[in-house]
Amino acid sequence: MKKLVAILTLILAFSINANAQDKYEPTSKEKGTKEAAMLTELLGLSDTQNADFARLFIQKHTILEDKSITAERKQELSRVIEAKIKATLDGNQIEKLEKNPDLFKKLIN
Q1: Of 31, 39, 68, 89, which is least packed with CB atoms within 10 Å of its CB?
Q2: Would you tell me how many other CB atoms lie within 10 Å of the CB of residue 85?
Q3: Lowest mean pLDDT segment, chosen from 13-17, 27-31, 40-44, 103-107
Q4: CA distances (Å), 76 to each of 11, 35, 71, 73, in order?
């Protein structure tokens, strides 16, 4: 009987530990920094530009974490992010970014 209780306790402990690991989700800061790094890698941006984009993308993810955000607000946020990206980059960089539609879509959505 003691062995059965010990085995059940171990199984329960391992299943709780496995579930706790599945629930990790990156923070807004991690997501924003990663997106800025991907953009910097693609376009060869300076450290200052990378930091500026990181702040922009962190702010984007912070806003998107709000569960009460409406679809209209999300659409407006995407439009603003796209405008800020295009205002910051030069023509060649914009062209290079638009040739990578998956990344561009990820950055603005």
Answers
A1: 68
A2: 19
A3: 13-17
A4: 48, 19, 9, 5
- Residue 53 has φ and ψ, to the nearest 5°, of -70, -35
Per residue in 22-72, pLDDT (tens digit) is 578 899 999 999 999 999 999 999 999 999 999 999 999 999 998 899 999
Look-up: residue for tokens 């062209």?
95
pLDDT-based confidence at 6, cuts 50/70/90? Answer: confident
Beta strands in 1-109 (DSSP E): none
CA atoms within 13 A on the CB side of 50: 13
Asked if residues 63 and 69 have their Cβ atoms less than 8 Å apart, the reply is: yes
Q: 10 Å Cβ neighbour count for 14? A: 10
CA atoms within 13 A on the CB side of 79: 6
The structural domains of the chain, with segments of one domain joined by +, span 28-108
